[in-house]
Amino acid sequence: MKLLTIILCILAANTTAISDVHIVTQPEGENAFEPKVINVHPGDTIRWIHNSGTHDVVNGLPCNQFEEPIFETMPLTAEEPTAEWVVPAAAYGEIPYFCSLYGHCEQGMTGTIIVTPRADSVVHVVDQIGVTFQPETIEVAPGDTVVWEWNNGGHSVTSGGIDSCEKDDVFFDLLLDSQHRSVVWEVPDTMPANLEYICIFHCEMGHVGNIVRILKGDLNEDGKVDGADLTLLLGCWGKPCGDINKSGTTDGQDLTILLGNWTITP
Ligand SMILES: [Cu+2]
Questions:
Q1: How far is the CA of 189 from the centre of ligand 1 (A)?
Q2: In the chain, what are the domains?
């Protein structure tokens, strides 16, 4: 009974999504964003707060855009003093923005959003080398983060079929080029067992990759997380054999991961 209570408490704690709100202000009387650079994670909210005059917030190369902005606010005024943008699961590692009104951008009203993986997320780095993604196949679990790093040329990171070379419009479709040097993707629970992705410019040349979902907590590797795995984990308590998060020992954190991936059988 006691163990069940502990398990339920851990499950309750585990389902709480951790996302932060980052405040960027326009200081009264100044054509500026403060702070100018912010560090955020996928899922976080950025809230811009206006204090005087009229301004807006437009994503793109300051003070030009050159492409469709990924966010653009209505003018921030005394009547409409705040705007928000939620960082999506897949985002550029560096997102520049500016105020497009009255020449404020030229006066330095610019800002940068840096998107980095969460501190507790396992990070998988994929390098673009010519028309290849290296490594071509990676194994991930929901909650992990994939970071694609640009090397040269112009490419994209687009979820879609490697045989059809068509995008699926489901998980990600972002550029990887000299203006977008990295793409960060926090793997969602909805990720399928096998996710193919392509570079839309070079797919026919084989510029493709593969992401395989792994089931953390499946200690006996039978394709599901159940009582047999829990028994193994408890038998490994304080020893390395049931160490899921690679901390060196089997402890409450591993139990949390195992219970969080518990296979629900209908
Ligand atoms: Cu490419």
A1: 27
A2: 21-115 (2.60.40.420), 123-213 (2.60.40.420), 217-260 (1.10.1330.10)
